[in-house]
Amino acid sequence: MTDLNGKDGFDRRKFLTGAAVAGVTPALTQTTPAQAQAAAPRHTPSALPPTTKTIAAETQPPGEETSRIGGKPGSDYMIDVIKTLDIKYAPSNCASSFRALHESMINYGENKSPEYISCMHEESGVGIAHGYFKASGKPLLTMVHGTVGLQHATMAIYNAYCDRVPLIVIGGNDLDAASRPPGVPTFHAAQDINAIVRDYTKWDDTPVTLQHFGQSMVRAYKIAMTPPYGPVAISLDAGLQQEPIHEHGAKLYIPRYVPTSPPQGDSNAVREAAKLLVAAENPVIVADRCARTPNGVKLLIELAELLQCSVVDQGNRMNFPNTHYLYRPAGVVSGADVVMGLELSDFWGTVNSFTDNGENGGVGFNSPRVKPTTKMISITSVDLLTKSNYQDFQRFQTVDVHMAADAETTLPSLIDAVKSAITKERASVIAERVEKAKKAYADIRARDMQAAVVGWDSSPISTARLCMEIYGQIKDLDWSLVSSAGDVSNWPARLWPIEKHHQWLGKSGGYGVGYGAPASVGAALANKELGRFSVSIQSDGDLMFAPGVLWTAAKHKIPLLSVMHNNRAWHQEVMHVQRLSNFRNRKANYGDDMGPIGTMIQNPDIEYHKLAESMGWWAKGPIKDPAQLGPAIKEAVAVVKSGQPALLNVWTQPR
Amino acid sequence: MRNMKMITAVAATLLLSGGAAYAASAEKGKVAFGKNGCWQCHGWEGQGGNAGPKLARTQLPLEAVMTFVRATNGPMPPFSKKVLSDEDLTDIYAFISAQPAPPDPKTIPLLAR
Ligand SMILES: Cc1ncc(C[n+]2csc(CCOP(=O)(O)OP(=O)(O)O)c2C)c(N)n1
Ligand SMILES: [Mg+2]
């Protein structure tokens, strides 16, 4: 089957090259044994007769219109396959191991679906795909140099894995050790490039024929897009990309993509959960990645109102409007008699607290947040995707009703089951909760307002002021907070009315810092098509892992307002080192800085506005006076509305 | 685990050694608040946030603050006399107590919903 695996064409190409060289320089036909070895394998005749087209290609002198490859390149077929999946962009950093696919994408595929997005770092390519999916619900693919590029991409892939975000990573790899170019390309080849990401991808493959690629690509897309979503990887042989398609065997076809329906909770478990929720005096729903789509938000509101129960939104997606009187902060679980977790990444941490106080031999102090009698229900599809090595599954928590199912998909049947379980008597008990709930909501809101004004006029600017100055300038737009890197004391969730699914896209997933900048660019790319205004709160530490993504935003005219939370530190770590110094009864060494050595980003201060400007952004800063912030944001908003990215370097309080 | 509430209850009976003789300075306290890292979790004005509660205009007596800062084994790491002197802590107390009253949220248009 030489025609199907392409080896025939590969050999022929070498033979022809050899013959052509021999034709012009006869002296070279006298080969030394070493040269003979270098030129091997020599052409061996195919068992199948060549087609007329192939004969013509091989026997006639090369005209201007003839491709040296001798047929349609394999990578063109790959593009045909990719196009059927409607993948809009391919944010990538270029590399020879996928040069053939790259060439086919921009020439044969006319740089449309996917359109190539130029990236400075593979981590940025994956981060862009991550953010893009959360704003649009559509996965992207990213191409990487299979070894070194994939090594760069790994943290971002881990974030996507932990955040249950689908994306397709295609790693170029030159597998054929006997024929791949020596030197650098061989350093950049490996037996199994996907090994380094196998622990945090849902699936990976190494197609060895074009038809195999066709199946793998559609399978990869299908697996990535079946809840629990996740990243997938394809190792793409450079030879396979470069060889021509041979159609004198079975004809290549493109498998049709049909989405897989997500797993739904077992009906007995759903009924049992409904019974517990209806009988409870104080049920609490906690949601983390429950709302995969805007419909998930609607369903959760319906369920919460049926039960008139508190809802905690842990915020890895926008699950529940914070303007709803049933919206509550995390502490509300302490009074619960039933806690239902929907797609939680950490059930244990939801119902227990951990105090990092150096006790218990340094490991800290654990205590339950809930009563021992509290019943627990869990619905999460991630139970179907538990791997061994990386510990994203968190501590073990015993749960009374446990469904390995997608929460959003299960909600309609749970709502029905709750409706049928509510008796007249329970209905009146539930109705009585409303007034109390509304008052509790108003009290929390008043407390948040009181907290926001402390330090309102301080310089550096308080995080509450930062957030409200931003909100003041975007509130009349169809805004989307595409990322909030670093920690601004949760002010957007506490003070901005967040009611739409796209207004809050959640965090990184795996807490790999460096997500915020690329994810906000990716989400802004999606929002651009959707006519939304993208804003990000951009911390300093996060930006500096791969600031080249700013150039990508300018290059591709991606409108994004990036307002910096520049606290001049990796502040999380400032506190960690201080904490350890105190536990050990040592004065923390600040060197010449304001915090522990190795944790501050100062002396010199980074001029982020200049950094952004140098890469084509409109930028301003450093802004330290809160009175100047509102007008500067207003200016920046106008720039972003005109289609450009804009950055404000704002000096902020630590948290 | 001892928390702030328990400590406040016993603190009233404790006295700062030589505290009565020390004239506290809010100005020096501002510097000590920075040099000893209180700003990290409580903010430069003691306004509080995700990492630590508001300290500005604390209603706690000095003795309670002293006891707490030295002995807490809750979420805040303790500061012993070795790393933070009584004098510095007394100045810090003067600094956080001297913070101006915040504005009424109702007077801030940005906070109106
Ligand atoms: C890749 C990576 N390196 C290091 C860390 C450890 N880390 C956690 S938070 C943090 C600081 C992040 O700084 P910044 O984005 O400025 O946020 P801030 O804490 O200052 O609000 C670091 C370095 C990490 N989580 N991920
Ligand atoms: Mg920072």
- Secondary structure: helix percent of chain A: 40-55%
Q: Could you give the order of the helices and strands of chain B?
A: HHHHH
Number of distinct helices of chain B = 5
Shape of chain B: globular
* CATH top level class name of the largest domain in chain A: Alpha Beta
Mean pLDDT of chain A: 92
Indicate the low-confidence ranges of chain A by residue numbers: 1-50
Taken together, the total number of domains of chain A comes to: 4
In percent terms, what proportion of residues of chain A is strand? 5-15%
Please report the total strand number of chain B as a whole number. 0
- Please give the most extensive interface between any two protein chains, plus how many residues each contributes: A-B, 47 and 37 residues
Radius of gyration of chain A over alpha carbons? Answer: 29 Å
**What is the C-alpha radius of gyration of chain B, as a whole number of Å?**
15 Å
Which structural category fits the helices and strands of chain B? mainly alpha
Question: Mean pLDDT across all residues of chain B, rounded?
Answer: 88
Residues in helices of chain B, as a percent range: 25-40%
> What small molecules does this complex bind?
thiamine diphosphate, magnesium ion
Distance linking N and C termini of chain B = 40 Å
* Spatial strand sequence of the major β-sheet of chain A: 9-8-7-10-13-14
Alpha-carbon distance between the termini of chain A?
A: 64 Å
Report on the structure:
The complex is a heterodimer of chains A (655) and B (113). In chain A, helix 5 (74-84) crosses helix 6 and helix 12 (267-279) packs across helix 15. Chain A is α/β, with parallel strands linked by helices. Chain A folds into four domains: 1-70, no CATH class; 74-242, Rossmann fold (3-Layer(aba) Sandwich), CATH 3.40.50.970; 267-434, TPP-binding domain (Rossmann fold, 3-Layer(aba) Sandwich); 453-568 and 605-650, Thiamin diphosphate (ThDP)-binding fold, Pyr/PP domains (Rossmann fold), CATH 3.40.50.970. Helix content of chain A is 41%, strand content 14%. Chain A is globular. Chain B is mainly alpha-helical. Chain B has one domain: Cytochrome Bc1 Complex, Chain D, domain 2 (Orthogonal Bundle). Helices cover 40% and strands 0% of the residues of chain B. Chain B has helices at residues 4-11, 26-35, 38-42, 62-71, 86-97. Chain B is globular. The chains are: A alpha/beta (655), B mainly alpha (113). Chains A and B meet through helix 17, helix 18 and helix 23 of A and helix 3 of B. Magnesium ion (MG) binds next to helix 21 of chain A.
